[in-house]
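Can you please make up a protein's amino acid sequence together with its fold in token form to help me picture the idea?
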Amino acid sequence: MTGDTTKEEIKIRPFWYSDIWIFPKLINIITTLDAEGRVNAAPYSFIMQYDVMSKNPRMILGFRQDSHTYLNICDTGEFVINCPSADYIEDMMETARFYPAGVNELEHTRFTMIPSRKVKPPSILECPQIAECTVEETYELPKSNGIVIGKIEAIVMDKGLKDLDRGERIKAMNLPLGLGDESRRYYYHSVNYDTVMHELADPPDAYRASDAVTSMEWDTDALQSLMQIPPGVRKLVTDQAESFAKEKGDERVTMARFTELAEDAGMDEEFLDRFRSKSDPRKRA
């Protein structure tokens, strides 16, 4: 290993996550109600998936502990994550202003409130994707963020978006990426960015239909279902299925046992359909 004179260590200081490190993040407007039923809206980017399985889909979010949004979430147990398009960045920035408690920031924007389906806080019409959530757990980091784990009660999208190829959907939604701020006043966003697709190659030991290696006997229908799993993770699923069968005292992997494992892991027919043969999106463009 050789030395490198092109790098320097940077002091970790307050707001390191914004002033120093660049986190490209999706900007979301979170709508809540306070204890008196008044609407609050504010933009946040500390949001990501927490539990990806469809049985209990959850997101994790972070807030200032004294923010109106966090206090409202703790008081009412509900919130809505609204993802605005780049056409509404100025309106999104308006919701970031520090209005007094009880002020509905959306009334100072072009955004339109619409009823949510599963929770009381309103959703935003102009946002192409929306997640309605309830609180599952909160905890507070000492002198730092308030953390919320929210259960997704409903995912709502503009009609037609779900059926688009991912590349087409990205363009149609036109979601801005937040790139941080300077001096907590000047905020940077990336819009109209080029989207590049890369195909992930299978690992060297990927199982294919002709070379699947098993340590147990498999029923024909179970093996056929295994072949529907992407080659890149087929070996992993094979090992899991055989371990599961052995734990149950089986001498072979039956379709019933493979189905039981698949359902336990959330791999139902709808899940498997995601991986079944589809045309190359590059050929559809």
